[in-house]
Amino acid sequence: MGYTFTWDELIKICKKLGMKQQGKTSVWTGIGPDGIMRTCTIHAKHKGNIGPGLANKIAKKQLLFDSVEEMYIFLKQNK
User: 1 pLDDT band (50/70/90 cuts)?
Assistant: First the structure.
């Protein structure tokens, strides 16, 4: 099943993970509730959905979820 995210939804996920924007840059960093440091790059000025390949990279490598599905479930449970 394909999951889609907007940049605004990605910002919501980062905020729920305790991350904050670093100045006026597109970089968000913070230590999540599990004690793990995360860094994510968010291009919030772009409108529309994030492509599936980029969503997978952000979910697994930047936000340290096991899968895009886990990130989607996290978003839905933490609205």
Answer: low
Residue 44, Ramachandran bin (φ over 0: left; ψ between -120 and 50: alpha; else beta) = alpha
Taking the C-alpha atoms of residue 19 and residue 4, their distance in angstroms, rounded to an integer, is 21
Distance from C-alpha of 18 to C-alpha of 48, rounded to nearest angstrom: 24
d(CA 27, CA 12): 14
- Tell me the H-state helices in the chain: 7-16, 52-57, 68-77
65 closest CA partner among 32, 18, 27 = 32
What does pTM read for this prediction?
Answer: 0.90
The tokens of 12 are what? Answer: 């919501």
